């Protein structure tokens, strides 16, 4: 009984550090322990840890690269496309730590014959591994998560193409496993409340299939099979139900009661927005549309107007830039329960619109595009102005650029999806800052952490050769 409560305290206490993990690794992967700990009891820790990792990287890395924000500290160069090697450590360590719990959740579910918990675990597996492989490229996958009890630290790296193929297959398996007449068998579910309201399990199934659409679209330009499967899914909503309204969006609505707080909740205002302004691109685009999302995302400058600063400014321009009275992120986002996003309904509609426009699927691209725009606006609690869809720049013009630009805004604070999508499509068209060194382009990935190079040297050398290098310009498979 003592073991049970220690393990539960770790799982529900949301431990994410390596040191804390070592305190209970003697119980991980033990079949007897997994019989005691219900699969559903892993869920909230996985959601919270995975979400916090994504939000941290969104705020720190994605927003700077993708011209949401621009730092006003001269020592930070992310907006000039320079990523320090140390930035690689956090997502690698924390996503893999969280995936250990996903692995145990699935194992516990299979031992107990709990098919919905197993399907949820497969869905979470795909969500987290998709982020990992899109950040780094080829990564340990089939041999990953064997550090305990197998003492296997020298794991081989799998090609990203193979990882995507397996993730898509796992999501298909999850779709078939879900039993929509009952909820998750035990535990708690902060995402969809499917334990207390069993009918909400359908939202998990729709998340599963919506994520599958995301993965298929990410590689559609590389795979005829992916294009065919996109069409099959979009044409078979009974077999592959996906999100159809904002209520079905997968959003971890933080209670902001310990321990389930928005990760920025305890930040000082300055730590959240004081050293960075909104970018000129971000502000000007939203201002040109008179977009109702802007006041929800940004704060007016002290002179009462929305004003950004240019991304990628020259280092010698620092004094001039720091003197600009600029807009910043709205501090209300620190306590918002809307930024904990796995995926939204708006993204589904933009995937649908792009699929139709590129000839992958049939349907009405304009309807899908407009549904996506309206869903993104109303998701944030704003009303869609009566003339909004007819305004210049918003009115449908039948181009992928327009769809993907609106998708960029819909992915606000959605982990690093803006960055991933830009690398896939080249949209939105972001202005190139004067301080970006000639020949340097948007980073294509993060480098592998130093620890990987030291404790897994042989496999590291193999993957570097296979990928063509280990620097931020090395393109991942789906970007080539």
TrEMBL record:
Gene3D superfamilies from the UniProt entry: 1.25.40.390
Q: So which residues are the signal peptide here?
A: 1-21
Keywords attached to this entry: Lipoprotein, Signal
Which Pfam families does this entry report, sorted A to Z? SusD-like_2
Asked if the Swiss-Prot or TrEMBL record annotates the protein with the keyword Cell membrane, the reply is no
| InterPro entries, alphabetized | SusD-like_2, TPR-like_helical_dom_sf
Which superkingdom, per the lineage?
Answer: Bacteria
The keyword Signal belongs to this UniProt entry's keyword annotation: yes
Task: Write down what this protein is called.
Answer: SusD/RagB family nutrient-binding outer membrane lipoprotein
Q: Which organism is it from?
A: Chitinophaga fulva
